[in-house]
Amino acid sequence: MSWKRLRKVIQRALFLPSRVNRDLDDEIRFHLQEETRLQSERGLSDQDAAAAARRLFGNVGLAKEDTRAVWVSTRLEQLLQDLRFGCRILTRSPGVSLTAIILIALVIGGNTTVFSIAHGVLAKPSPGVHAPRLATVSWVAENGDIETHQPYQVYTHFLEHSTAFQPVAAFDFARLTMTLDSGSYALRAGIVSPNYFDTLGVRLVKGRSFSADEAKSNASGLVVVIAHHIWQNNFGGADDIVGRPVTVNGQPATVVGVAEPGFRGALFAELADLWVPLTGEARDRLQLSRGTNVTMIGQRKDGASLSEAQAQLTTLWTQLQQARPELKHRYRVTLVPYSGTAGGNSIVATRGNRMLAVFSAVTFLTIVIVCANVTNLLIARAVVRQREMAVRESLGASRGRIVRSLLADGLVLSVVAWIAACVFAW
Description:
The chain is α+β, with helices and mostly antiparallel strands. The protein has helices at 3-15, 17-41, 46-57, 60-69, 72-92, 94-122, 152-161, 196-200, 228-235, 280-285, 306-323, 347-350, 352-384, 386-394, 399-425; strands at residues 134-141, 146-147, 165-180, 183-192, 204-207, 222-226, 245-248, 251-259, 274-277, 295-300, 331-337. A six-stranded mixed beta barrel has the order 3-4-9-6-8-7. The chain is elongated.
């Protein structure tokens, strides 16, 4: 049966049951009339012809029941009856029903909450990051330790020669002091490459990001991009924020942009209040160490898989090690799918998969325990309903119909418990 035909049958069964029954009555009446006509043509009187037609046709009521038994609409009607009866069963034994619903809701809602937290910590991007196909460059030692910081020259080598992994952004963090007319503030700053915001897909609500000229080592002036909360709290959300002069670590600077609300950096562990270009001159002016290493995040090219991009970076890393002996340590480069915690030496970043495995095992055990407890409750209720089942069977209900009604009872209980679990998780 085609889907269109099935949908029409379901609609007639649910919304036009009287019309379906009338159609059946008309069909049977038509067959009786035709048979009566044939018997009349054979010489029987009208009364005898009608009686002969009824004898040949058989029991009309039984014919209707047999016809309805093969209808899809009848199965749906029986299912609706079983579901309505299952709803009544919930109220007939409220203690058992309420206990089962609470148990199921707690285990489903609780585990959903735990996995939502785990997903938020392990897999979700940092707020404001919208770019697809992002990955973090990491280095794994032989003992399993993970390192994400490498010299700036490694970043420039990857940026210039990588084709499958492009663009690539680099960043580092430092603590700076910003001085305004209202006072001085200790802030966390991101020291970033000029393509940092574009690579992450971060939108600027005011102004622009860093230009290529501002990222050069001989840039004429220091520029900064500030976070949205700094704009609101320290500048009062001024519309003329772009071009405002500020003092950062005692050096004059100019605000050129404001990041979108919520964005504080690519990683949860290193939140920033403002960003400055990743140049040697900026480090000198801000009195930062020029030997600081950087973290790299980039996007895979369209059509390039994570393994293809990693293979290319592995080749570039090998070439760089051969050219620079100081880099010949026992690290291998790897690409990690980006998240707000991807990379680094934190226990969340290095043991995230193991945490999810532990959560999965605990979830499985709790579900098994709850299923066993609910099963015991339903068995106890089934013992009480033995007389009801016996009466049903004595009145002609088939064993299959009784099993279907019990399954409908369990379905109603499950749906109610699922709704309660959604409320609890929310």
